[in-house]
Amino acid sequence: MKTLTVMLFTLASLVLVGCSSQPDYRKAEGSGYGYQETKISDTQYRVSFKARGSDKTKAMDYALLRAAEVTLENGYDWFVVTHRETLIDRERVSPESSIGYTSSHDMVTRCGLISCTTTHYPRDTYSAGIHIGGRESSDIESIVEIKLGKGTRPDTDYSFNALEVKENLSPKN
Q1: Number of folded domains in the chain?
Q2: Which of 21, 26, 164, 172 gives a 20 to 30 Å CA spacing to 5?
Q3: Judging by beta carbons within 10 Å of its beta carbon (0-12, 13-18, 19+), is residue 102 exposed, middle or buried?
């Protein structure tokens, strides 16, 4: 009986390891996890990478990796990121810290036996924060829109050499 229990435990462990060893970087299929791209024009694409976890940097890296692959597959040398967005559990998060101020009013209506009076109370809200990531079970999706190019790469912080990105961000075995 003890041997059967050990064998079942070992088998269950192997099944779990097999399921969890599925590669992170892959084409999105049934669950939607992985990369996908949409052609917008001959030289413009929207590329996204969706993952489960809390590492939004990895999701952005894999979106950029797929952008580099799309660039090279289409015979181009470089790409410029024209728009980027990161969603955690379908909510947009800013890539940097944020500081905010909002002003609103609360309206309170009080009614007596004969009449009602409405009073407005101002409410000011100050906020500051930085997003440090989602929960371990969060859905993280990084979306980039890119423009492809050949020849001399523009000298901006948003332009990338596709071959260098592919070499630097490809998963290491």
Answers
A1: 1
A2: 21
A3: exposed
